[in-house]
Write a structure and sequence with these properties.
Layout: E1 9-11, E2 14-17, H1 23-26, E3 41-42, E4 47-49, E5 52-61, E6 64-72, H2 83-95, E7 103-104, E8 107-114, E9 119-126
Antiparallel strand pairs: 1-2, 3-5, 4-5, 5-6, 6-9, 7-8, 8-9
Length: about 130
Amino acid sequence: MIDITSGELFINNELIFRPLYRFEEFKNTSYYKNQDGIRVIYLEGKQSIDGNDYYVNFFFREGKIYAVNLIKDDENITELTEPLRKLVHDKILVKYGIENGKEYPWGKVVSDYDARGNVSAITIYYN
């Protein structure tokens, strides 16, 4: 999961996100598939973080990473039970000693459920 002291996030055992990460740097990774740096970018398929599968999307603001959304893959959760995924995400944060919504020098991590979009996610916000 994310290193709360540095704000670094490894996906598939590869450092991919960190504070001040730029879209120009992302363009030099194997994840870059001609995506637009202005819109939300979705990584194809499931991504592994510490042996767990997540769907990952993120976006840049003024060329710098702003937010990364992680949605834990859980086959037991359906569209009708989506709000339960937030509980799964909350447990993940507790497991890693991450306090929901706590401010760090580099940003914060939030587990949230959006009722309008019916989606739960762990969101990492970078300053």
